[in-house]
Each structure stands twice: as structure tokens, then as C-alpha cells.
Design a protein that fits this description.
- This protein is an alpha/beta fold.
- The protein has a single domain (about 5-305), classed as TIM Barrel.
- It has 12 helices and 8 strands.
- The chain has helices at about 5-15, 20-30, 40-50, 65-75, 95-105, 130-140, 150-155, 160-175, 190-205, 225-240, 255-270, 285-300, and strands at about 55, 90, 115-120, 145-150, 180-185, 210, 245, 280-285.
- It has an 8-stranded parallel beta sheet with strand order 7-6-5-4-3-2-1-8.
Amino acid sequence: MIVDGSEGSLKKFLADLAPVDQVGADSRAAMLATRSIKTTSKAWAIDMAISMVDLTTLEGADSPGKVKALCSKAVRPDPTDPTVPMVGAICVYNDMVKIARTELNTLGGKDIAVAAVATAFPSGRASLAVKKLDTQDALNAGANEIDMVIDRGAFLSGRVGEVFEEIKIIKQLCGDKAHLKVILETGELVTYDNVRKASYLAMLAGADFIKTSTGKVTPAATAPVVLVMLEAVRDYFILTGNKIGVKPAGGIRTTKDAIKQLVLVNETAGPEWLNPSLFRIGASALLNDLLMQRIKLRTGHYASANYVTMD
């Protein structure tokens, strides 16, 4: 694999990638979605999914109070049951990072990551100078994960060197202080081939995770798209020995949705990726459903929706 970061070498590498069999990807994703899960496996899957949740609030009306409440839920998803695992991360805008980090530390959630959306989220339409400032602001506030968005306009126009360079620079800013999750916004990439190429481009530039979407564009984390991205990280690992994580985000709202994602991971990338260090789920309402299904497994009946805090 000879890629020196130049436009020419990147274009050649991406052009040489095998095209995605769209019909095959659709049918395999549909087939895996029909897999049934036994009760004992379902209990394990629910807890694993909870530990993989990036509990997210990305609204203009976000307030310190809302973020603190979300942090409390991240640390103790079910206050009556200490066996429920903590979530993987809290995902917020830059101005809420310091509040989230302080609150998590106070509540005993120092191991929960604080992810900040950066680089002119969700559009990615800003100068590199602004994107660097945006990222540095999040890092200075205490973010230990950066969710950056690629410039989809540049990618779709064929300016892959420009996209590569931006990711590389943001990764250098992150250094050892933060993991870099690169958002492809797959709903705007049009084809599965573009999803595969963007996945490789991000990984080559230094991404620690590749992420489907901002949650602001539809379609978002469709099963075939996640399948294509999981195939990319699997094949990239075979090629380089480097394990890259995957984060689907947008549209994953129920326990059934989450378990389908775990089946995709296990059957495509492999069981090593069934770990919060290599797979996350960007969501907000999902956690409530996971908790209610967990209670159903434990007690035999559904709790009232009022039992869990509604976000």
C-alpha cells in the first residue's frame, strides 16, 4: 500500500478499491437483521449496547442543567440498579464540554469520555483555520474525543487530497489527548462506493473511528452503510494491522435496532469489535428503550415509560 498523501496517490488507491456489490450489501444486511437472539445472549447484548452508547445532546436549546442531568444518567443509567453499566461517552457541543467533564468527574464517571462535535459541525463548511480553532477550543475545555465532519463538497468534487489533509491536521491537533472520530455523513455520499472510499480516506489520514452521520441528515445509519464501513475497517486491519472503530449515529432508537448493529459487527468485522473501544452508537432516546427491555428481562414485565427519565 503506497500512499504518500498526495492527490495522485490517494486517487489511485481509492480507484483501485473493489466496487461495492450494492445488491449483495443490501441482501446481507437484511439477512443479518433476521437473526434471533436467545434470552441469555439478549441480556449480554443489552448491557454491551448500553456501554457503547454515546449519550448525545446537540440542540441549540441545550443548557447546563440538561447536560448535567445527562451526565447523571450516563453514570447511573438506572439509579435503582447499580449493575447497569455506564455509557461510553457524552457527546455535546464545545461550550458544554467543560460542564460535562466537571459533572462526570464529580459523579464518579471519570472514565466516561466527553466527545465534542467540531470542525463546523454539522456542515463542515468553514475554513481550515476556523476548524482548527474549533477543535482546539474543545480540547482546551477537556474533550477527550473529537467528532469531526468531513467536507462532503470537497470529497464529491474529487478533492480527496484536501479532505485527507484536513483530517490529518485535526488528528495532529488531537495528539495523545483525544481520539478522533471522523463523520462521513453517509446520507450525502450517494453511493456505497463513496462510503467505502471515504472510510478508507479517513483511516489513511489517521482517524481512530469512522462515524456514519451527524444525525442531522437522512438517511443516516442504515444497516447496509454500516456493513460497508465494517467491511472497510476489517479489510484495513488485514492490510495494516491497525484496528479502527466504527460509530453509527442517527435513527438507532430501539433495543432491536441496537442488537441488529451488534450482529452486524460480530458477523462482519468480528467479535474483537464488540467493545466500546471499537464500536459506539450515537443516540439519545435509545438508552431509555435499552433500560426498559433490561427491566423486562429481569422482572418479566415492562416498566412504565415514566420509570426511566425521558430525554
